[in-house]
């Protein structure tokens, strides 16, 4: 089992992010994950995931660098391919490129991309990324959304045959695309574990139909977490996580799997969704997840709206020292 961390995202300054990742690397985390949002109602997101991971890669030695997920339809795939290849070089082969459809209309309007082109742009983008990363000479690529002719893919990636490609998303078509066009499906933090379990079964059916080995592919998962030594401290810290969801989804901003009504009561929201409690509680919760569906790479997010940085780091350390060794 590998464990990853989402470092602090959002706010006015980059200060402290790399140091947080260095702490995580020192105490047993194996990966660093970053999200990709251009517009949000909360305060916990930044854009430019590949830029951020380049800084983190320069400040760390071993952490796998994961975009989870980059909204591929928003960008020209050549732009993504070149920056991703550079990051794979700069980090000496530590990039995992997770991509998704996106769902925020405001972001697509700002980038001038029609929402109804999302699926086509993502599929063509994934095919282009695969060709760019694995080519041993100039490439031609022509599709309804972009084209390149006699283009030299530079730089070469470090990983062989290429960095891993993951696909995020919850719809049946996205699950199928993750099997057909990528190396893994990556579930986000919003859905409850019952939905994750259902989609993992759908994924397995597609994998078996494709004649692939279910046990040979990676099974990542993202979860929100609140951890403390005592139940009383957990009660205090969970308010930050609740605030995050109230700010993000309590108004007009929406998610395909989240509504304003669903975030009002924290206990109902957290049930079968978040990791929260003492280290022993969370160990039991992770073990229970492993009993329900395939899971071998878990990324946790400890920073929530308004939480002081010292509390975030205390949680990172406690999880690293008390939970990770159990797996």
Summarize this entry quickly.
The chain is 42% helix and 17% strand. With 327 residues, it is α/β, with parallel strands linked by helices.
Task: Describe it.
The longest helix is centred in the last third of the chain and has 19 residues, at 231-249. The protein contains 11 helices and 11 strands. A 9-stranded parallel beta sheet has the order 8-7-4-3-2-1-11-9-10. It has a two-stranded antiparallel ribbon with strand order 5-6. The termini are close together. The protein has a single domain (2-326), classed as Luciferase-like domain (TIM Barrel, Alpha-Beta Barrel), CATH 3.20.20.30. Helices cover 42% and strands 17% of the residues. It is of the alpha/beta class and 327 residues long. Helix 2 packs parallel to helix 3 and helix 6 (172-181) packs across helix 7. It is globular.
Number of helices: 11
Low-confidence stretches: none
- Whole-number total of structural domains: 1
Mean pLDDT: 95
CATH homologous group name: Luciferase-like domain
Tertiary shape: globular
Order of helices and strands: EHEHEHEHHEEEHEHEHHEHEH
Q: Roughly what percent helix?
A: 40-55%
Beta content comes to 15-25%
Q: Would you give the CATH topology?
A: TIM Barrel
Rounded to the nearest angstrom, the distance between the terminal CA atoms is: 6 Å
CATH architecture label name: Alpha-Beta Barrel
CATH structural class: Alpha Beta
Rounded to an integer in angstroms, the radius of gyration calculated over CA atoms is 19 Å
Largest sheet: number of strands, sense, barrel closure: 9 strands, parallel
Structural class: alpha/beta
User: Which strand order does the major sheet show?
Assistant: 8-7-4-3-2-1-11-9-10
């Amino acid at each position: 089992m590998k464990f990853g961390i989402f470092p602090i995202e959002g706010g006015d300054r980059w200060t402290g992010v790399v140091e947080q990742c260095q702490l995580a690397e020192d105490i047993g985390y194996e990966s660093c994950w970053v999200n990709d949002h251009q517009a949000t109602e909360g305060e916990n997101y930044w854009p430019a995931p590949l830029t951020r991971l380049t800084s983190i890669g320069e400040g760390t030695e071993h952490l796998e660098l994961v975009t989870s997920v980059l909204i591929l339809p928003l960008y020209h795939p050549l732009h993504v391919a070149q920056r991703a290849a550079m990051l794979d070089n700069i980090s000496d082969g530590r990039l995992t490129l997770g991509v998704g459809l996106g769902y925020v209309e405001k972001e697509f309007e700002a980038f001038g991309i029609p929402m109804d082109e999302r699926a086509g742009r993502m599929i063509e983008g994934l095919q282009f990324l695969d060709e760019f990363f694995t080519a041993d000479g100039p490439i031609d690529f022509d599709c309804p959304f972009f084209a390149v002719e006699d283009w030299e893919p530079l730089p070469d990636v470090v990983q062989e045959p290429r960095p891993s490609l993951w696909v995020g998303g919850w719809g049946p078509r996205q699950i199928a695309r993750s099997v057909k066009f990528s190396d893994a499906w990556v579930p986000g933090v919003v859905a409850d574990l019952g939905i994750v379990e259902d989609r993992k079964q759908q994924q397995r059916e597609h994998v078996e139909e494709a004649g692939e080995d279910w046990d040979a592919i990676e099974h990542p998962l993202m979860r929100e977490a609140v951890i403390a030594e005592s139940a009383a401290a957990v009660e205090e810290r969970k308010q930050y996580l609740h605030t995050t969801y109230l700010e993000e989804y309590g108004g007009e901003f929406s998610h395909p799997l989240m509504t304003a009504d669903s975030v009002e009561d924290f206990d109902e929201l957290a049930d079968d969704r978040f990791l929260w409690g003492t280290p022993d509680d969370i160990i039991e919760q992770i073990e229970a997840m492993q009993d329900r569906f395939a899971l071998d790479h878990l990324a946790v997010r400890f920073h929530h709206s308004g939480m002081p940085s010292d509390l975030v780091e205390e949680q990172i350390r406690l999880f690293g020292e008390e939970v990770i060794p159990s797996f």
